[in-house]
Fold this sequence. Notes:
- This is N-acetyltransferase.
- This protein has helices spanning 6-16, 23-31, 82-99, 118-126, and strands at 37-44, 47-56, 63-73, 104-113, 129-134, 142-147.
- It is of the alpha+beta class.
- The chain has one domain (3-147): 3-Layer(aba) Sandwich (Aminopeptidase), CATH 3.40.630.
Amino acid sequence: xTQDDLEQAALVHKFAFVRQGxxxxxxxxxxxxxxxxxxxxxxxxxxxxGYIIWTxxxxxxxxxxxxxxxxxxxPDHQGQGIAxxxxxxxxxxxxxxxxxxxxVLKHVVVTTRADNFAQDLxxxxxxxxxxxxxxxxxSADEVYMVARNIP
Length: 151
């Protein structure tokens, strides 16, 4: 993601996460926190249609616990495999960024609403399994999924 992608990515955020606000400000804060946060965008015809945010958890460590903090695809482009590609095509790039700091990926953590169909995507693409459910955390129950020992 570049600075020039922020406006379009903020529109994706606005339409994908209707209960959240201040989309541009939210994404700009995350963008500025590189290399803790690494953001990639998906584009079609030079338009941002999706993005993924990967976040290093608990400091810069030699074995990284990475959070798939947010994955969004504009509603007009959902169901086309964009989210899957964002995960599978960017994870090797994140591993490359980690290698620059002599670090390796250990686990991936994902949190999502308990009723979010994307749980199946996280299981299939990352091997993530539900480890815990927290009742009424944000707008509903939230599940914590962990993909352990990512190769």
